[in-house]
Prior knowledge:
Blueprint: H1 3-32, E1 41-45, E2 49-51, E3 55-75, E4 81-85, E5 95-114, E6 118-131, E7 136-137, E8 141-149
Parallel strand pairs: 2-8
Antiparallel strand pairs: 1-3, 3-5, 3-6, 4-5, 6-7, 6-8
Amino acid sequence: xxxSEKKDQFHDRVLRRIIVFLVVAAFAVPLLTPRVFAAxxxxxxxxxxxxxxxxxxxxxxxxxAQIGSVNGSMTYDxxxxxxxxxxxxxxxxxxxxxxxxGSGSISFQIKFQAVGDGSTTLKVDTTVxxxxxxxxxxxxxxxxxVEIGRAHV
Length: 153
């Protein structure tokens, strides 16, 4: 064996070791990375019991991880509630769009007026929840029942 052949064999061994290291590292990094998005949640608070004619506010909060943006919606019964303000929509259609860009937790203050007796469900569906680290999470949902009593005359 000549000097050149030994040098080539040495370079081949070093190159193989580097390739093996890179392949192992590529598989190990995702296993060692914490999954912060699993702790991201959506919750609804407020408006549990109201009287007919009353105005009330419901807070929808996305929290847990460092949330970068939210694209969600809330549905409600227009026979029981009038939407007044707080989302990215206008009008009383039974559907409220909630879009926001931020860093940390994101909250929406949704204002309604109760117009009918009985109960109704406010349901939140999330189509996109992006964390600050650009991890996308989909499918965060929440719901709350609003009890509407008779208005005092």
